[in-house]
Amino acid sequence: MSLDTSDSQRLTSMLIRLPPPLADALRDLSRQTRVRQSEYLREAVRDLLAKYGQEDGEQLQRRAS
User: How far apart are CA 40 and CA 42, in angstroms?
Assistant: First the structure.
């Protein structure tokens, strides 16, 4: 369930607040893997929506196009 996040795609900006230990862990993971924090957060949201049956990968891909 990969969602293309190329520069040509418009993304909606959102503000999130995390407890410091979560923010630190995300920052550390991002530095270690060289994957942007925002990419990890998008992946987490997709996984959460799939877990609760809100949308499947095809629906997300169509909506992102």
Answer: 6
- CA distance linking residue 48 with residue 38, whole number of Å: 15
CA of 24: how far to CAs of 17, 38, 41, 45, in Å? 12, 14, 14, 19
For helices 57-64 and 37-51, what crossing angle results, to 10°?
130
Which tens digit of pLDDT belongs to each residue from 11-64? 999 999 999 999 999 999 999 999 999 999 999 999 999 888 876 655 655 565
- The CA-based angle 14-65-52, given to 5 degrees, is 60
- Give which of 30, 38, 37, 31 is closest to 13, Cα–Cα: 38
Q: What pLDDT shows up at residue 9?
A: 77
